[in-house]
Amino acid sequence: MKIGFIGLGNMGAPMATNLAAAGHQVAGFDLVASCPRGVHPVQSAAEAAAGQDIVFTMLPDGKSLRCVADEILPAMAPRAVLVDCSTVEVDAARAVAAAAEAAGLGFLDAPVSGGVGGAVAGTLTFMVGGAQAAFAIASPLFRIMGQRVVHCGGAGNGQAAKICNNMILGVTMIATCEAFVLADRLGLDRQAMFDVVSTSSGSSWTMNAYCPAPGVGPHSPADNNYQPGFAAALMLKDLRLGQQAAQATDVDTPMGQAATALYQAFVKDEGGGGRDFSAMLPRFETRTRSG
Ligand code: NAD
Questions:
Q1: Coil, helix or strand for 26?
Q2: Chain segment 66-124, per-residue pLDDT in tens
Q3: Rounded to whole angstroms, what are the CA distances from 134 to 82, 246, 253, 291?
Q4: Most ligand 1 atoms within 8 A of CB, residue of 10, 240, 276 to mutate
Q5: Integer Cα distance of 237 and 88 in angstroms
Q6: Does residue 57 have its Cβ closer than 6 Å to ligand 1?
Q7: Can you tell me the distance from the alpha carbon of 281 to that of 213, in angstroms, rounded to the nearest whole number?
Q8: pTM for this structure?
Q9: Nearest C-alpha to atom 38 of ligand 1 is from which residue?
Q10: What DSSP assignment string belongs to 215-234?
């Protein structure tokens, strides 16, 4: 297939590389980052999009998605498909979907989980919103870049799945970290805590697969001095998107709100933005109930 790829940062570059390595013809553009090997560099987003069967974007936020979409939709070939893999507001995804439909083009929101490691290894999970016809066209390419693809329904539903998942993830990580510190202060050995919780009703992905306590459970960023992994700043971004959506739909999400406030303090006031999001454990270790 002829593919355009716009946004060649930490995630986009390895994703574009995997498409090119699978034998597709990929034209790439980024405002700053250089084009990875195997991807043909072009001079603008419009040039990357023109004449392609399918165009991927992997951008920082909804504002840059709207801006790139304004530029590329008029340049795209009739009936081509735009696939945005960035994590953005549900509203931004739905607005770009409507603009694409009005221009006679397909659109999918297809945010990912799996991080940079998953992008490099081609093992991402794609959660996809949009029409079945566009999904059928993009599916073989999702399977090159990822190992799991879930069609979540209409436009915006991929983003909805992503922010709901990450709201659960942020809340659960905080609960796991604070419980470890309570266990410490009660004199409970961390290995014993892991052995019980990971096989009991308190088990979760954050405990079982990504344990925030160093030296306990499978290898995780905690065993690498909390180098990300998934940076706390990115968790804060996703929690904020969740709160924005909850506000827009008037949904009461007290746990999501509390998690957002905690990650905000960690990232903005405590220099934690560049640490893995599981570094909430050493954060709680240094604190007491009064502060
Ligand atoms: P990044 O900042 O490394 O890459 C974004 C790239 O987009 C940058 O290179 C930037 O120069 C480029 N860009 C911005 N505006 C542009 C424009 N108008 N035209 C062309 N290029 C433009 O970010 P990333 O880590 O690759 O993340 C990309 C998206 O994926 C984000 O929405 C993020 O939330 C999401 N995500 C990231 C991870 C992760 O672990 N890094 C995991 C899951 C999802």
A1: strand
A2: 999 999 999 999 999 999 999 999 999 999 999 999 999 999 999 999 989 899 999 99
A3: 9, 28, 33, 51
A4: 10
A5: 9
A6: no
A7: 7
A8: 0.95
A9: 115
A10: TSSS--GGGGTT--SSBHHH
